[in-house]
Write a structure and sequence with these properties.
mainly alpha, metal ion binding, transmembrane helix, signaling receptor activity, about 350 residues
């Protein structure tokens, strides 16, 4: 019988693909039953808190959605469809992230596939945030005219680009990853963030110029601050960069990144709630959102991103097989030299 709760190992005992910068220990065994990885949620290892932070975040968002449902008709009122579809995108983001960190250690193919689903979730959250911000957070003075009708289609394209660019960077580069890989990741995420944050940035600018506040703005400013902090921890590998091996289980940058993202979505929903309550009258004076511009955009992004995941999973298979073929050739040459 396979032991389901094995002690963790140091990085020397796992393939290079599973290594993380400045993390020396706490790695799980590869090629174990799926049950082993699900049960590892209750074991201390270097991915444990990465899974739990976003699992807890997902449950908190679901709880917030249930709270909203007591005040708003989330599915029957078209004016609440952007809120519902946006929350669905957040839940899927956290589900994909939590499962990716929980299951990626099973094999090289599982590693690639899990994180491609993670990237798909990030892209989906991007379009979900665009739907939320352009329906509830935009002041009348932020008039973009004819461009308004293009916001959702462009958001879908950018959401797919996040999944596409991150997947390309995953299969194109080997560990230790070069800095250009983070450019692929941060560039695509930065592109969609620039679009989704425009209505809020406009409000912040007006606040600076006129000193006029509204109830939702402090929450939105906080979500922007948390996003900047998330980018810092994602790109810097701080604090483990300065103390290799000291933050393997608790406190390394990816855990801090996860907590920052959790706070981004939490403050985002707090701000949107205040915006809906404060501007409810003017909200219902506008044309109601359509199914295609809310749930339709979410479903379309999911569908296209799934295609991207399937395509790049096949690329990963070839990438893995080529690597194994090169290893066999190297071993064969080494044996010949010894003989």
């Amino acid at each position: 019988m396979v032991q389901l709760m094995k002690p963790t190992v140091s990085k020397e005992h796992v393939p290079l693909l599973f290594h993380e910068p400045h993390v020396l220990s706490g790695f799980r065994h590869i090629h174990q039953p799926w049950t082993y990885y699900f049960l590892s949620l209750f074991q201390i290892h270097n991915e444990c808190l990465n899974s739990w932070t976003h699992l807890i975040a997902m449950l908190l968002v679901i709880k917030k959605m249930m709270t909203f449902s007591k005040e708003f008709s989330l599915f029957t009122d078209p004016y609440m469809w952007p809120l519902t579809s946006g929350i669905i995108s957040i839940v899927i983001l956290y589900l994909c992230s939590s499962l990716a960190h929980c299951l990626q250690s099973r094999s090289e193919l599982a590693h690639y596939t899990c994180f491609m689903f993670d990237y798909a979730g990030i892209g989906l959250y991007g379009i979900g945030s665009i739907i939320l911000h352009y329906n509830y957070c935009m002041l009348p003075s932020f008039n973009i005219g004819i461009l308004q009708s293009w916001i959702i289609p462009v958001g879908v394209i950018l959401g797919v680009c996040v999944c596409l660019c991150c997947s390309i960077s995953k299969v194109r580069y080997k560990r230790p990853y070069p800095f250009i890989r983070k450019v692929w990741q941060l560039g695509s995420v930065g592109g969609i963030y620039a679009l989704l944050i425009l209505p809020i940035a406009h409000r912040v600018l007006l606040m600076i110029l006129t000193s006029e506040w509204d109830k939702g703005l402090p929450h939105h400013i906080e979500q922007m601050i948390w996003f900047i902090m998330a980018g810092f921890f994602f790109g810097s590998d701080i604090p483990q960069r300065f103390f290799p091996g000291k933050f393997d289980f608790l406190g390394h940058s990816h855990q801090l990144f996860h907590i920052c993202i959790m706070m981004v979505s939490w403050k985002q929903l707090d701000g949107i709630y205040e915006d809906i309550v404060e501007w409810k009258t003017s909200l219902y004076e506008k044309d109601p959102p359509t199914f295609s511009s809310t749930f339709g955009a979410i479903f379309l992004t999911i569908f296209i991103n799934l295609i991207v995941v399937v395509i790049f999973t096949e690329s990963a298979k070839q990438f893995i097989n080529q690597g194994k073929s090169c290893e066999r050739k190297t071993d064969h040459i080494s044996v010949k030299k010894k003989n």
